[in-house]
Amino acid sequence: MSSLRFLSVVALAFVAVTSSAQAQQTGTVLREAEDDDMMVQPFNMKVEDLEDADLVNQAGDDIGDVEKVLVDANGQPAAIAAEVGGFLGIGQKTVVISLDRLQPKDDDLVTTLSKEDLGALQAWDRR
After folding, report:
1. Contact 38, 47 (CB under 8 A)
2. Residue 1 — pLDDT band, cuts 50, 70, 90?
3. Whole-number pLDDT of residue 115
4. Which CATH superfamily is domain 28-120 in?
5. How many other β-carbons are positioned within 10 Å of the β-carbon of residue 114?
6. What is the distance, to the nearest Å, from the Cα of residue 44 to the centroid of all Cα atoms in its chain?
7. Which of 114, 105, 125 is nearest to 45 (CA)?
8. d(Cα 57, Cα 60) in Å, to the nearest integer?
9. CA-to-CA distance for 68 and 96, rounded, in angstroms?
């Protein structure tokens, strides 16, 4: 019985740490941008221009697609939700990437995040 209690405590601690880490990763509650004409700074691009853009690494290799621009509680663009990983749609994960981890280049967004970094990012659950 005591080992069952120990496992319950460990599981509860794991959930608390995981939830805390996800909250810290974005630093705020995010939601999808509703105004396609909203300008996304520092890129000086509209939401509609960023959504569906390719996400590439520094070598120019395609690593995903921007699905949505996400805004913070004040309605200011703060991050993107991007589909990354997988092959032919299998194993893809939609993750949250803060705008400070991205740079525009032509019609793409470039990130320095590695494949491992992207896999460790918070999943976007379309709140």
Report:
1. yes
2. very low
3. 80
4. PRC-barrel domain (2.30.30.240)
5. 11
6. 20
7. 105
8. 5
9. 9
Give the tokens for residue 46. Answer: 């509209």
- Render pLDDT for 22-36 as a digit per residue (tens, 0 to 9): 333 445 689 999 999
Q: Which of 127, 24, 113 is closest to 71 using CA atoms?
A: 127
Q: How is residue 41 written in tokens?
A: 């700074």
- What are the beta bridge partners of residue 96? 81
Who contacts 105 (Cβ-Cβ below 8 Å, separation ≥6)?
Answer: 56
Q: Where are the alpha helices (DSSP H) in 1-127?
A: 2-26, 47-50, 115-120
- pLDDT tens for 78-115 read 999 999 876 666 667 899 999 999 999 988 999 999 88
Structure tokens, 20: 């805390």
DSSP calls for 85-113: S-BTTBT-EEEEEEGGGEEEETTEEEE--
Q: How far does CA 27 lie from the centroid of its chain?
A: 12
Domain ranges of the chain: 28-120
Amino acid (1-letter code) at residue 127: R
Percentage of the chain surpassing pLDDT 70?
72
